Amino acid sequence: MKRAVIILVLLASLLFIAGNLSGKNVLLSQIISDIIPPFVTVLGASEPWQNNATASVFCLDPGIITDCDNSTFMLKINANNSSCSTNFSDYSLASPKEISDHVWVCGAAKDKAENTGFSPAPIEFKVDKQSPELSNLVVFPESPVNFSENQTYQFNVTVTDNVQVENVILEFDNANYTDLIEENGIYSKIFENLAAKNYTFRWLASDLVNNWAQTDPQTYSVLAAINETNQTNETENNTQPTPQQPPSSGGGGSGGAAIGFTQSFSIVAPNSVSIEQGKFGVITIIIRNNGPSFSNISLKVENLPESWVRITPSSQIIDATSFKEFAINITIPQNEAFGNRTFQLRAKDSLEILKSIDLVITRPVESPSATQSTSSQAVTNVSTTANATETNANTTSPVGAFILTNPTFIGGMIALIFISVLLYLYQYRREEFMQLKEFFKMPAKAKFKKAEIEVESPESGESVKYTVSYEE
Predict the structure, then answer these.
(1) Among candidate residues 96, 125, 154, the one where a domain is terminated
(2) Which of 126, 301, 348, 427 has the fewest CB atoms within 10 Å, i.e. the most exposed one?
(3) What is the pTM of this model?
(4) Shared-domain flag, residues 172 and 151
């Protein structure tokens, strides 16, 4: 009994002391909780990969007197899944913190009683901000290539990513292709029988979180076949081989003779181009260096206003037995008269070559009016009907087709036959006609009985039997 009284006195003393310390009535459990650290973890991560995330400390203090101190929320980033440090000084990053990589994050926080809590385990953030890498663009055969029937063309690219490649697309001639062949990160697309023209293409790729990468636009040229008779829309003009003269052996010379060599180049361009008024066109030409050494070749357009023409580039160094492309952009003013005119391409280094091209300036194509559309449709319908008539003429005559397809004509013929029968009866079978006449005068709702009537013909004397109905 005495022991129980002592315990009650001690509990009352603790409650009294706690009440004085806090200035209010509190429970013993509240005082004890001040020595328990807060619960801490890190929020902001998701299980799948993401391209952005923010890590923040979450703190929950079991105490009622105290609470978490927001100013002490700190983070620590680890490159691997190592355990979280229990040393508060290791946490140097303020919360919240943007995460930009694949890392593990720990958190720490204090309550207002200076108790420190730490994350029980690191939280994994799967963040990927890196786009795929595209490299090793390969095209076979190399551009430019002369047109050839049954030729195949293979376009390759190597795609890598720090996590995983999701999509690879070849954008070729304004169309997207995803039916690619993949082997060890090399993606391929094969075309067949490409027409002779310039093609623009580029590669695009994305990863799991939609980070995209793309190559710069590339040009692939399939040239019209050039044969000896020049039966194509392009010709190749060649400079005449010009031997290089050896240096003169003047009085101060060494007396030795330099070995001469032949230098020449050629130009491949269309014979004619057509551009609408107010529009522009781009002509791509090829200049080949057929000689044994490099040439610095410049290109000019003559007999066209300078404001119409832009050449990219205006000059290029072309290695021996190699070639380069030049793009000529020609813009036709809106008010320029339509018709034909001729301009020249002049390619020059130490030699010079001139190529003439016919320029056809056409009127803008206007959309047809409603009247024109109706007329055109009428012509089409007439043509279609004529064809149908010609086709059917082999099986059904025009008269037969008219009879079979005209209900008014059929109805008229039935009425004519009926009237003819009535006239015959009136003329030659007067008694039968009068009986029929009386029959049609009967009320519609009358009750009728059937009876047989035998009539003798006044002409032949033969008896004719008729079945008639009469009112009851």
Answers:
(1) 125
(2) 427
(3) 0.41
(4) yes
Q: What is the CATH number of the domain that holds 307?
A: 2.60.40.10
Q: What does the pLDDT look like over 139-176, one tens digit per residue?
A: 998 889 988 888 899 999 999 999 999 999 999 999 99
> 379 and 335 in one domain?
no
Asked whether residue 402 is domain-assigned, the answer is no
**Among candidates 46, 39, 191, which has minimal Cα distance to 121?**
39
Average pLDDT over residues 451-468: 66
Instruction: Work out the average pLDDT over 79-105.
Output: 93
d(CA 61, CA 112): 10
Inter-CA distances, 373 with 354, 367, 369, 370, Å: 47, 10, 6, 5
Cα separation of 323 and 440, whole Å?
104
What is the Cβ-side half-sphere exposure of residue 326, based on CA atoms within 13 angstroms?
27
Q: Which domain holds residue 163?
A: 133-223
The domain tally of the chain equals 6
- Residue of higher predicted confidence among 452 and 299: 299
- Average pLDDT, rounded, for the chain: 75
Q: Is 208 within 8 Å of 166 (Cβ atoms)?
A: yes
For position 425, what pLDDT does the model report?
A: 67
Among 42, 110, 111, 116, which Cα is nearest to 77's?
A: 42
For the record, the structure tokens of 191 come out as 């075309």
CA-to-CA dists, residue 202 to 216, 397, 470, angstroms: 6, 63, 97
**C-alpha triplet 47, 53, 55: angle, nearest 5°:** 95
**Pair (89, 142) in one structural domain:** no
Q: Which helix (H) or strand (E) holds 122?
A: none
Q: Is the dihedral of CA 427, 431, 433, 434 positive or negative?
A: positive
